[in-house]
Amino acid sequence: MNIAFIGLGNMGAPMAINLLKAGHDVTVFDLVEEAIQALEAEGASRAGSAEAAASGAEVVISMLPAGAHVQSLYLGRDGAPGLLDALDGRPLLIDSSTIAPDDARLVAAAAAERGFTYLDAPVSGGVGGAKAGTLTFIVGGDPAGFEQGRPLLEAMGKNIFHAGESGAGQVAKICNNMLLGILMSGTAEALALGVKNGMDPAVLSEIMKQSSGGNWALNVYNPWPGVMEGSAASRDYQGGFLTDLMAKDLGLAWELALGSKSSVPMGSQARNLFALHSAQGSGQLDFSSIQALYRQGEDK
Ligand code: NAD
Question: How does 241-263 read in b/e, with b if 16+ C-beta sit within 10 Å?
Answer without folding.
Answer: bbbbbbbbbbbbbbebbeeeeee
